Amino acid sequence: MSWLDTVRSGLEAIASHRLRSSLTVLGILIGIAAVILTVGLGEGATASVNSAISALGTNLLIVQPGSSSTGLVRGGFGSLSSLTYQDAQALANKVDCPDIAAVAPQVSTVGTLVAGNQNWTTSVYGSTPSWLSVRGRSVQVGTFFTQADLAHDANVVVLGQTTAQELGLFSPIGQTVDIGNIPFSVIGVLSSAGSSSSTNEDDMAVVPITTAQDELLGSSSVNTIYLEAASRSTMGAAYEEATDELLALHGITNPVDADFNITTQSSLLQTATSVDHTLTVLLAGIAAISLLVGGIGVMNIMLVSVTERVREIGLRKALGATPRVIRRQFLVEASALGLAGGLAGAALGIAGTFVLPHFISNHISLSGSATAGAVVVAVAIGVVFGVYPASRAARLAPIEALRSE
Amino acid sequence: MTGPATRPVLGAQLPLVQLVDVWKTYTAGEVPVHALRGVSVSIFPGEYISIVGPSGSGKSTFMHILGCLDVPTSGRYYLGGTDVSHLDEDRLAEIRNHRIGFVFQQFHLLPRLNAWRNVELPLIYAAVDRRARRARALAALEEVGLANRANHFPNQLSGGQQQRVAVARALVTEPDLLLADEPTGNLDSRSSADVLAMLAELHRSGRTIVLITHENDVAAAAERTMRFRDGRFVGDQESAA
Fold first, then answer.
1. Which residue in A5, A96, A225, A297 has the fewest CB atoms around it within 10 Å?
2. Is residue A164 classed exposed, middle or buried when 0-12, 13-18 and 19+ CB atoms within 10 A define those classes?
3. Which candidate from A1, A312, A318 shows the least CB-CB separation from B124?
């Protein structure tokens, strides 16, 4: 019996039991759609967490001063004033620290900004021109300050979008903003970065670090030094280099006594990714169970079909069908049910990835490999769960099969 | 019943079917049941034989072995000179497909296939291509006088017509042997006569037919009647014309 005839015969058998076949297909369809949606949901969550963390700079090392101890009271990290602008310049040395691509020291304070009759209190950061790339930001209008501005203690400021709005500055370039009664000239506005969980990244003012230290703070200490490793793979090396350099600069021999602390974003990324991974595995597990249930549905239907068609099987055997031909015919039926369920499920799943995000806030990724895999699995389910009913059909003795009523 | 039958002269021609001391024993529980107890018979090409006997006489078992639906427990069965008594399932299926045509009491037509697609079924298993299958199925329907019902489904046909479709299905492979198991058992007397007339016609055209029945008047349609009782032949008689 040719494959074409086998397939035609199988499809005819499916078509002759439309309701039953479509219920079976429905069982698989739900499982497959669930797999595609849950995998997509998991991947979507991972992708959005990743991009949020990447926006902060994934290759970022954050150096903060260590903790101070006043008597028995120990301050937290950052309570010491152990970091200086000179530390930052030393870390930028390509000979000592080849794996550190960029360095941005940062001081911060809170200041009241005044423009005309508007005032607004916000974070004021002092940094260097590399702050822009290290923090993964860009300027929307105007320019960022330059090394020359640093050298001259220039009174220039770059505003966040929210800050500019709150100050009523709709064409802010060239306008004057007073920070703590010192006039600054607005040279640029940052592009929007959205808000992270704790801070509004669009509400800030950035000035040259030298200006901030001399005119706003009156101190030469630095709150934070941002280091950007050349790539994610060199973060370890950059970490070592920064530690060694700072220990040497601060004259500390035992690393346990270090008066600074270096943290990375990658640990945060790892945690977030592993949480998402766990979630994906959990959801995929639920989806896999629903596929299993769908598979048992196929077996059930195929067994019913075999029982119901005992006479037909007997007749076909009497007319010359070998056990192999009978087995193949039932396998074709089962896998066709699986394929139909798989394709319909994939269609539903794909539709779901586009429609569902309109109703829930989560982003759903469409995973091509998960979709293709799900269809393959659906066919495999048809075959695997069709094997037993098919071999039962093939083993039927033609005489008894013909005799049954 | 007479006719210009090609009555074989014993010994002058090789038998189509030759059973030598065939036993069939079923072991249902503790007690072995001997359905056939040493049956030996020869059937020659072109013969029209009826097998009669009460139920439980072993005539159904005999037909199953004759039709290669089952194999003997002991003894030999030569079909066209080939020993088929110990073949495996695949070879038996092939022999059923190529050499034997079955007609059953319950017709056994597939309800979702129309007449010609029912008739083509054995050809599917013989791996005949689709176009040839259709042509041969239509020719077989023509032979049983149902060419104009080729596209009718079984439930659109009368009992007699359904049985004629079944006969067409049995003939479509040009088998050596036509086995009819109570072919008139589910038919009214007019349809019965119809089917028997058709079998007689097929016999006249040279086919070898074995007809199994429990009705004496049906058996009388054949040119030779063999009586079965308790798993043995108890009589072999020429039908009196």
1. A96
2. buried
3. A1
